[in-house]
Amino acid sequence: MGSCCINSEKSHQERSALPHSISMIPVKKIFKFGKTLGGGSFGIVKLAHRITDKDPVAIKIIPKEKVQHKLSVLRREIDILLTVDHPNIIRLLNVYEDDEKIYLIMDYCSGGELFTRITSKGLISEDEAKKIMRKMLMAINHLHCKKIVHRDLKPQHILFDKAGENGEVKIIDFGLSSKLANPLELMHSQVGTIYYTAPEVIIGNYDDKCDMWSAGIILYTMLSGNMPFYGSSIQEVSKAICKGSFSMEGGIWDHVTENAKNLINKLIVKDPATRLSAAEAIQRPWFDLSNEPTSEIDSDIIESLKNYRKTSAFQRETVNILIKHLPESHMVPNVRSSFLALDKTDTGQISKDEFSKIMLDHNLNEEEIDELSSAIDIRKTGNINYSEFIAALFSGKSMDEDMIKRAFECLDIENKGFIVKNDFKIAAIKIGKELTSDEFEKISENFGEINDRITYDQFKMMMGA
């Protein structure tokens, strides 16, 4: 049975433009399409929902004829979206394709763009700007720690998952992003939107500090409702940027604190060597970190983490795959705030040392903590990332029928009605991960003597239902 699955996957890859796509199931059998949310040079974004449960998602629809000579760029964007793992970065939930189109399934952000929020209000209050900026910087720090440079940060690419000041910030659109081979590598392509473009990008020799210039421009715009550099043409704007002179005097700036102005002056700096990094910017006095939440987390979350030790390798890998496809509306309550409270380095990862301190306070001994942290760190990076943290909470609770069905669908990519061992390898590739031989062996142990295939009813029992 396994060899049939492998042959099927080869033929699927031959037909596919993208290695992460699911071609076996027509996308319109899974989702019902609604209104158009926006568009760009490659395609449009539509609101949609799963037919079975009405979960809203945003679907980027890209005609293949428009990207047939730029597939490498699209593959790079997808690879980057599968690499990042942070509460303030948009998630790619799935990729479908048919003969004519590619469909990127993303989290739906109903709160709209930061650009719309600025233009509708005229400007953003300093307290609100502070919350937005800190979340942006944490996401940028996560990107830069992974050697990823966004290269097109602007208010149109900052969304909110819901309306109101409590909406969570989400950085989107990684179409121009790049991943550096090493920290000293420089980029040379003149990309991005001119008003937010750093002077070194215009010159054509730059690194990840270009994102920090853009962050400074965004902050300036939030607090004043204006752009620091402007002109009647792109050439004039470029000259103003390269000159680097801007004003924060008089008018609205009389009501902005000195700490906010100092941060802007440390970000909109011509020399990238003296410009703040994201990690440095987060520590600036303006943010007043003394008011940040402590590392105390909900007792229910602690209990779920403790229970994770009892799960099998089969269950852990299944839930980690499920989490990558699950809309945020289904996440465990308080998971985001608990994760960020434990992320003391603002990198989008929880260090094992920090995790150990918390669990020691909740009556686990060092041996139990080592066992638990190693189990959660399923990708063996030495830290606990956001998806792993969510997966541990899911595995530590009883999964309802809907979640078990979703998990089965994530593995039964060809819609066979059963899963085989090789389906785990294929499903892992779809989320940007290749199982090691050891991981595959541990999963395979759970198949036992059931003819190398697992039906849905058997799967339910194996997931503890």
Question: What order do the helices and strands come in, and which of them pair?
Answer:
Elements: H1 2-15, E1 31-39, E2 44-50, E3 56-63, H2 64-67, H3 71-83, E4 92-97, E5 101-107, H4 114-121, H5 126-145, E6 148-149, E7 158-160, E8 169-171, E9 178-179, H6 199-203, H7 209-224, H8 234-243, H9 258-267, H10 278-282, H11 299-307, H12 313-323, H13 335-342, E10 349-351, H14 352-360, H15 366-376, E11 383-385, H16 386-395, H17 401-411, E12 418-420, H18 421-430, H19 437-444, E13 453-455, H20 456-462
Antiparallel strand pairs: 1-2, 2-3, 3-5, 4-5, 6-9, 7-8, 10-11, 12-13
Helix pairs in contact: 1-18, 5-7, 7-9, 11-16, 12-16, 12-17, 14-15
Record keyword descriptors for this entry.
five-stranded antiparallel β-sheet, two-stranded antiparallel sheet, Transferase(Phosphotransferase), domain 1, 465 residues, 3 domains, 13 strands, Recoverin, domain 1, alpha+beta, Phosphorylase Kinase, domain 1
